[in-house]
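Q: What structure does this chain adopt?
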Amino acid sequence: MNVGVLDRWVRFFVGIVLVMAAFVSPLAELVAGWGQWKYALTAWGLVMLTTALFRFCPAYTLLGIRTCPHQSR
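A:
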C-alpha cells in the first residue's frame, strides 16, 4: 500500500468524473467533440479507480512516493 486516505479519495472522485465524462450528459456533450480522447479519459478514470480500490500505485513505486503512513510488518 502506497496510497494514503486523502490521495485515495481524490483518485476515486477524479476517476468517477473521468469515467462519467464519456457517458453521462451533460459531461458527454462537453467531451463529444474530443473524438478518441474521450476513450483515453475513460481509461485513465478506470486506472484512477483501480489504484484507489487497491491502494497501490505502480508509478508511486517507481518514483519512490508514498502518501500513506509507513506500516511495520
